[in-house]
Design brief:
RNA-binding; 4-stranded antiparallel beta sheet; alpha/beta
Length: 931
RNA sequence: GGGUGUUUAGCUCAGUUGGGAGAGCAACGGCCUUACAAGCCGUAGGUCGCAGGUUCGAGCCCUGCAACACCCA
């Protein structure tokens, strides 16, 4: 079977993945030490976006690398039920059909969600496959599947029994649109323009302020909440109001009498220094209310319309409508002193984007402090390490101030809370209703009703590492693969997920969930802007893999929008940015780009130009392999072509040495999670050493019919063996092209295996450094480059053979030339070559200096003397600058006295070399100018 | 308001204990040289955000400032 003439990723990638998957190659195997990564479970509502693809690429590179190193590698995959996000999507679909939730009821709704999940859940797994991710599909899990749900139930019940889960009436973040509580983390604080209203509250009982006013002025951004005010607070040390503390004001509109209290929380500088206190609708006010024993007046319904605790005219109206009316009514009563423009921080739900209300409800909470302590300790003592380390500070800061976690959601889709109530409102918790009854010794005739709420989606994902491995059963997988080795995730979910995993896992397994947390940056578009559906700059990774036409992309980006008014703008932007659509680049190119861009501690700008470059890289690998195969197969009839004695040349030894260095660098880079350094090392070696130099160095031998067989064999074997090593080293990044090429290259290199996936990752020990060979090739490269430079600068056609003159130099130069003359002649297209005697006057020539060696190309007919003079002046100029810097350094007595001897010696050598070069070039310039 | 990160070539980014500023892309010049024009050869381009400090020596260490990004309040 011969290799296709052209690299075409579409032709290889799909079939290869199916073959891998069916062969069972992704499952852990062998007797090596276990290695495990759990995938951060994507939401079933999602399609894979480039951020996922990026993250998965890094994980797959790690898994493939460890698998090649003989580890029993498990990449645990699965998806998350994404409680709120999923419910929202299905609700919206129903709404589009004119169906309201209460019409169909809880059970039917949940059936609908499952049906929808079954119909779309496949999309994301298909995308994971197309990205080449070698996950173990046999072990795929879903956070709502039976086994995992059991783990969730178990954890809830045990935490409850241990007193770490409690139910209580608390002020929580309430989303009036979704009509559910959400946790602190799910609230985004957004700065928005607003107003600050200064409102007069009349003093009761005929008292006056120190300034003689009959009222206090309070400033608020939310005048509607005054309907629930139960006090006005001033600072205890504020002389202006000290005498009024203990008196009352009459709350306007409501007409209630409320006290004036003193509390250190009040900022005297803000507004008039008087603050309205609404304990039922503000977290800070609630704390003050608790301190002062103030009553709570809840004025909102679940949808944030105003309830019957407010004066009649406002009842039943939406909060924003009430705001307008309250302001109007106050103005009518001349109680508004002034109105300022004011930037306010508005809390919004991260899913619904609705303005959140602090609202008093009964909810379930996790008591967090007993869980946080051990979790802080685990990071402090290094059982869990963050990479990069700076994220540990972020983790500590958050964990120190962590508040109890509200885990109940007033929704239907999700893990239903395993608590039951009797008619008296007593609560019974158990794994089943029967267990709950049994524990409480309840008679069968006592009616119980299960809690309607479901759990926060992050409650279940916190159990992901051990829940997927079979907990609460004591499975072999749990024993083998837990703690997992590394978690690869973005900094955006350190609090949501990483911290909670550490807390829960320590509590229930006594182990950390993972030993390392590799935190990657966020993928942004080519201009560095955040990718999002609403700004329409997001990309489906498969559209880069397979390519997409402009209009198709426009259609995709403007479909199913939450903000349809943006469609025209997005369409225009898309047409501008992708006038010719996106070419099909193939999975390998995209993966290579992700690795190369994965530098630590920063977001990455995702640029298609980079992908194109790496597609070209894959093509380069393909063509190099084609070259190697053609020269091996051409000789295949000759059984001695590869078998028999070999005599390795300096070039052969050099590329072997560099291959060893590549292996060492790759191992080190992966150990440090430096995917960028790893990818760059592969790129640099493959393109600029193997292809640019070694293949060229191989040609003179391969094309020479007279070459001794042991030399030819050495070149063929070296081409094959180093390419085979390169393919294995590159495989974790670019699995498809390397596997395809491997199957052609490996058998000829005497290496077995149907798949590169199970081949050992090359060890530097197999290819020790050969300093002699490296020095020899460095010399050859230097002389070749010098001649090419003359050609380039003098516009001598590469096709034109030139004469080469050498002069001076030392014995090493002569030895090296002798060893590599044939190579040099080919690489630099040199015809005649002659050493000049030391005292021989060279003909007019263009000259370069390599070490002590003068490299000259005679001008005769080839080179313009004026151009050469100009070039020399430029060179001399540069030399002079360098020399001046070196001399300044050496002229500094302090430098010579204090710098390490080696540094000084190096500087002296550099000076001497520069001076020698200068002498040659300067003499050459005078000679040409004289002529 | 507190914290973290970033600032290096036109663009995107490397730069590992302080010791001659790098890559890719873009640009410019020359090449269809028997693996590859998705290529080859060569060239040019930077006050390393600003201001101080430490040091014989600073992109790197310290202080301050600025801009941008993000996290927390």
């Amino acid at each position: 079977m011969s290799i296709a003439n052209r690299y075409d990723p579409a032709a290889i990638e799909r079939d290869l993945y199916a073959e891998w998957e069916h062969s069972g190659a992704f499952a852990p195997s062998g007797n090596g030490a276990p290695y495990c990564i759990v995938i951060p479970p994507p939401n079933v509502t999602d399609r894979l976006h480039v951020g996922h693809a990026f993250q998965h690429t890094l994980m797959d590179a790690l898994i493939r690398y460890q698998r090649m190193n003989g580890r029993r590698a498990l990449w645990q995959t699965g998806t998350d039920h994404a409680q709120i996000a999923t419910q929202m999507v299905v609700e919206r679909q129903l709404a589009a059909q004119g169906i309201a939730l209460q019409d169909i009821g809880r059970e039917k709704f949940i059936d609908r969600v499952w049906a929808w999940k079954e119909s779309t859940g496949g999309a994301i797994t298909q995308q994971i496959r197309r990205m080449g991710s070698s996950v173990d599909w046999n072990r795929e899990r879903f956070t709502m599947d039976e086994g995992f749900s059991r783990a969730v139930l178990e954890v809830f019940v045990r935490l409850y029994e241990d007193g770490l889960i409690y139910r209580g009436q608390r002020l929580v973040n309430w989303d009036p649109q979704l009509k559910t509580s959400i946790s602190d983390l799910e609230v985004e604080n957004v700065e928005e323009p607003g107003h600050l209203w200064h409102i007069r509250y009349p003093l009761a009982d005929g008292v006056y302020t120190a300034d003689g006013d009959d009222h206090l002025v309070v400033a608020t951004t939310r005048p509607e909440t005054m309907l629930g005010d139960t006090a006005v607070a001033v600072h205890p040390d504020d002389e202006r109001y000290r005498s009024l503390v203990g008196n009352s004001v009459i709350l306007p509109l409501a007409g209630r009498r409320i006290p004036i209290i003193a509390d250190g929380y009040v900022d005297r500088e803000f507004g008039s220094g008087c603050v309205k206190i609404t304990p039922a609708h503000d977290f800070n006010d609630h704390a003050i209310g608790t301190r002062h024993g103030l009553p709570l007046v809840n004025i909102f319904n679940a949808d944030a319309s105003v309830n019957d605790n407010a004066p009649v005219p406002y009842r039943g109206l939406d909060r924003f409508e009430v705001r307008k009316r309250v302001v109007a009514d106050l103005e009518a009563a001349d109680l508004v002193e002034r109105v300022q423009d004011h930037t306010m921080t508005v809390p919004r739900g991260d899913r619904s984007k609705a303005t959140i209300e602090p609202w008093l409800t009964d909810q379930w909470f996790v008591k967090i402090a007993p869980l946080a302590g051990p979790a802080i300790e685990a990071v402090r003592d290094g059982r869990v390490r963050f990479v990069p380390k700076q994220y540990e500070n972020m983790y500590f800061a958050w964990m120190r101030d962590i508040q109890d976690w509200c885990i109940s959601r007033q929704q239907w889709w999700g893990h239903r809370i395993p608590a039951w109530y009797d008619d008296a409102g007593n609560v019974y918790v158990g794994r089943t209703e029967a267990e709950a009854r049994a524990k409480a010794g309840l008679a069968d005739h006592v009616a119980l009703r299960q809690d309607d709420d479901v759990l926060d989606t992050w409650f279940s994902s916190a159990l992901w590492t051990f829940g997927t491995l079979g907990w609460p059963e004591r499975t072999q997988e749990l024993a083998d693969f837990h703690p997992t080795d590394v978690l690869v995730t973005g900094y955006d979910i350190i609090f949501f997920w990483v911290a909670r995993m550490i807390m829960m896992t320590l509590r229930f397994t006594g182990e950390v969930p993972f030993r390392k947390v590799y935190i990657h940056g966020m993928v942004r578009d080519a201009t560095g802007a955040k990718m999002s559906k609403t700004s329409g700059n997001g990309l489906d990774p498969l559209d880069i893999v397979d390519g997409i036409a402009t209009e198709e992309l426009v259609a995709k980006r403007t479909a199913n929008m939450t903000q349809p008014q943006m469609a025209a703008q997005i369409a225009a932007r898309t047409r501008r940015e992708y006038p010719d659509g996106i070419q099909p680049y193939g999975t390998d190119a995209v993966r290579f780009a992700f690795c190369a861009l994965a530098s630590q501690g920063r977001d990455l700008a995702f640029d298609l130009k980079r992908i194109e470059g790496y597609r070209n890289f894959c093509n380069k690998l393909w063509n190099a392999s084609k070259f190697v195969l053609s020269h091996v197969d051409g000789a295949a009839q000759d059984s001695a072509a590869l078998n028999g004695p070999v005599a390795l040349s300096a070039a052969d030894r050099w590329i072997r040495s560099l291959t060893g260095r590549l292996a060492a660098n790759a191992h080190a880079a992966i150990a440090d999670y430096r995917f960028d350094l790893y990818a760059n090392a592969v790129y640099e070696f493959a393109w600029h050493e193997y292809c640019d130099w070694y293949v060229e160095l191989a040609k003179p031998v391969l094309f020479d019919a007279q070459a001794p067989p042991e030399h030819v064999r050495a070149v063929r074997k070296t081409l094959l063996e180093t390419l085979a090593a390169l393919l294995r080293i590159a495989h974790p990044i670019v699995p498809f092209v390397t596997e395809t090429l491997w199957r052609h290259i490996a058998p000829r290199a005497g290496l077995g295996g149907d798949t590169i996936m199970r081949q050992p990752f090359p060890s530097p020990d197999d290819l020790p450094a050969d300093l002699g060979a490296e020095a020899a090739v460095a010399w050859l490269k230097g002389v070749t480059t010098a001649i090419r430079n003359i050609r380039g600068e003098m516009n001598v056609s590469p096709a034109k053979e030139v004469e080469l003159l050498l002069q001076d130099g030392d014995t090493a130069d002569r030895q090296r030339l002798a060893a590599t003359e044939a190579l040099l002649k080919r690489l630099a297209k040199v015809g005649a070559l002659r050493w000049l005697a030391e005292d021989e006057e060279p003909p007019p020539a263009s000259v370069q200096v390599v070490g002590r060696l003068k490299v000259m190309v005679p001008l005769a007919g080839l080179i313009d003397a004026d151009a050469e003079c100009a070039r020399l002046r430029k060179e001399i100029d540069k030399l002079n600058k360098d020399l001046a810097r070196v001399d300044a350094k050496l002229g500094n007595a302090n430098f010579v006295a204090k710098a390490p001897a080696a540094v000084v010696a190096k500087e002296r050598d550099r000076g001497a070399a520069l001076r020698a070069q200068f002498a040659v070039l300067d003499a050459q310039l005078s000679r040409l100018e004289a002529a």
